[in-house]
Automatic annotation (TrEMBL):
The chain crosses the membrane at residues 20-36, 210-234, 246-270, 329-349, 361-384, 417-434, 443-462. It is a multi-pass membrane protein. Its main location: membrane. The keyword Membrane applies. It is found in: Cell membrane. Residues 473-677 form the Metallo-beta-lactamase domain. This is DNA internalization-related competence protein ComEC/Rec2. NCBIfam families: ComEC_N-term (TIGR00360), ComEC_Rec2 (TIGR00361).
Amino acid sequence: MILLLVVISRIIRLDNRVTWGLLFMSLVIFGSHLWLQEQRLSQRQLPLLAPAQTTELAVRVQPDAITIRGSLYYLVATKISNEERVILRGRLTSAAQLQDLQHVQRAEVWQITGQQQRLLPATNFNQFDSANYWRHRQVVTEIMVTTLTSRKPALRHWWQGFGDWWHARRAQLIRYCERLPGALKVYALGLLPGAKAAESMVELQGMQRLGLLHLFAISGLHVALLLTAAEWLLVHLRLQREHWEWVLLFSLPGYWILAGASSGVLRACLMRGLQLAGKRCPFYLSTLDTWAVALVAGLWLNPGLLFELGGQLSYGLSLALILLQSETWWWRQVGLTFLGLPSLLTGIFQWHSLTLLANWIVVPLFPVVILPATLIGTLSYAWLPALSRGCAQVLGVFDTGLQWVAQLPGNVLFGRPLWWVTWIWVAGTWWLFSRPVGKRRRWLSLLAVSYAVMYGVIHYPLTGEVAYFDVGQGDSILIREPFNRHVTLIDTGGRLALPQPEWAATPPVTYNAERTSINYLKSRGIDHVDDLYLTHHDADHIGDLPAFLKDLQVKRVLVPAGMEQEPGWARLLANSATPVSVQPIQVGSLVGLHVLHPFEAGPADNAGSLALQGTFGRLNFMFMGDLDQAGERKILTTAPQLRTDVLKLGHHGSKTATAPAFVAQLQPRLAIISAGRQNRYGHPNPETLATLHRATVAAMSTQTRGMIRYVYTDNRQGTWQTKLISKGNARDNQ
C-alpha cells in the first residue's frame, strides 16, 4: 500500500493528463478485479470454526498435484460444479490404492464423499498463516476425503488440453526425479519440476540456515540459467533464431507449469518472454520494464504476492540486481544483503553472519557446479547410473559443507521485527544507495545501529507473558518474565505417532512444536528455556520434547518424582545437543514454580501429574496438567485455604478432573482449556463446562480462541489477548 501511494504521487506530479487517465483506468480495472475476487471467495468461505459438513461431489484432479506422505495423501483439485479450487486430504487404505495414485498419468475426475470445512487460519501468534497463503491462490475450503467412490479420465475442452499436457509431463518428471539417488533427488525435484522432496528439510538445512534458499528455487535464478542454456544449445545447433525464439516464447507458459508455477518461476518466465516478444514489437522494453510488467502480472494472479517470503525475495532481489548493476561487487553484495534481510527476519527470524561469505562462494558455484551436476545426474540416471551417483555425491558433499559452515558461530536469532520498522529498513537501504559512494559508510553505520536497537527491543522486552499455545489435543504453556529474565515452559505438546502400514513408506519425523511454540519463541528472539516442566509422560504433553532439545538450549528439565526412572520417555532426550539436567520434583521442592502435586514418587501417569502455581502480573495462575479429581482432593486436604485467579483445567476439560468442590474452593476468575478441535475424546466435557457455569467462572479454550496469552509489565496487571479474537477483557470475550 505504501509503495502504491508513492507511485501514484509520483505519477500525479508528472502533470500529464494522458498518464493520469491511464493510471485511473489501471486502478479501476485492478481494483475491480480484486473486489470481484474477494466477493467470490467470501461467498464460498464457510464460517470460522463451523462444524464440518458432509459433502458428495466430483472434482478434477491433475496428476502432478498428488502428494503422498506415508499412508496419507493431499492435493489441490477443482470442483466440476463451479470451478472452485479445494484442498483434498485423505488416507490410503491399501497397497493397491497407493500404487494407483502413484501412477496417475493424466487428468481425472474423482467422485468423493468427505467432510468439508473452512481452512483454519494461524491459531498461534507469529505462526505461518497457511489459510491466508491459500486464499491468495483462490482456495478457502478443505475436504477430508472419507470415500473415493470412483475415478475416470477427465473430459477436457480445447482450452484445457495445453495445460493438461504439461501437467502430465510434470507428473512424469516428478516420478522420475523421485527415483534419483541421495541429494540429487532433492535438487532435481526442486530445480526442475519445482517439487519438494520429503528429505528436503534435512538435506537443505545448511542452505536454509545460511539464507541461501533464494538461489535454490524461490528467486527463479535457475529458470534464467536453464533458458540461457537452452538458447546456447539452439544457437550452436545452427537453427534459425527467428524460428526457435518463437518456439521458446510459446513454450514458456508450459514451462511455467512444468517448473511448478511458483512466483519466482512466473517472474523469470514473464521477464524472458517479454524480452523475446520485445524483439518482434515496435516498442522497446528495458529490463526494468519487463520486471514491472512481471510484477503486475504476478499481482493479478496472486494479490498477496508481496506479503509472502518467496515473492518478496524473488521480486525484491531481482529488482536489486537490476538497479545495482553499476555498483561494485562489494556494494552490490551489501545491497542484496540489506534488502533481503527484512524479509528473512520477518519470515524465519534469524540471520547468519556468514551469509555474505556464503553468497560470495555459492553464487558463482550455482551455474558452474550445482545446476550442471543436477542436470547431468538427472539425464544420465536412466542410461549411466554410475555417473548419476557421482553427481549425487558431489551435491551431497556440497550440502555437507554448507551444513558445516552453518554450524559455525555466527547464527543470530534476531526475532521478528515490527512491520513498520522493516519498511524503514528497506527505504533506508535504497536511500543509502542514492548517496555518493564516499558518503555511504556513515549511512550504513546508522542502518546497522537501527538493527542493533531493534534487536535489543526484541530480546529485552518490557513485558512478560503467560501464554497457552494452541497445540491441538495437548498442552504447552510459556511463562516469560519481563526482559526475558527467566523463561519457563510447561509441557511441549505432541501427538501419538500412528503406525504406518507395511506397504507405506515411513514419512520423515516432524514435530508440531516447530510450527507453533518453538516458532513463537524464535519470533520473540528466545533461544533457550531455563526451566522445562514435564507434567507427566503422556505423548500429548511431552511428545515434542526432541524438537525443543534440538532447536533450543534447555537448561533444566523438571519431572514429577518417579518419572526420572521410567525408561519409556528417556529416549526423547537422545536428540539433545548438550547434556540435559533432569530433576525430579514433588511437593516441597524448591524450584521456580510452587509445586502442589505429587506428594511422593510414583508413576508419571495422570494420577501422578504435576500441578504448579505461580503469580505473574498481579494474577495467580494454577496449572493442573492431567491431574484427576483424586489428586485435586489431596491438594485441598493439605491446603484448605488455596485460591487462584486463573485455573488451567486438568486433563483438557475432561470430567475426570475439575471437581465442583475443587472449583468452589479455588474461586478462580478465569478457566483456561487446552484441547484439540473436534477431538475424539469430546473434550471439554459438558459436565465440566456446567461446573464452571454454576460457579460463574468465565472460560476460554484454545479450540475457539487459538493461542491465549496474558501480557503484563512488572508490578502491573496485564491484558488478555487471543489469536482468533482481538485483544480485550477475557470475560467480555465469552
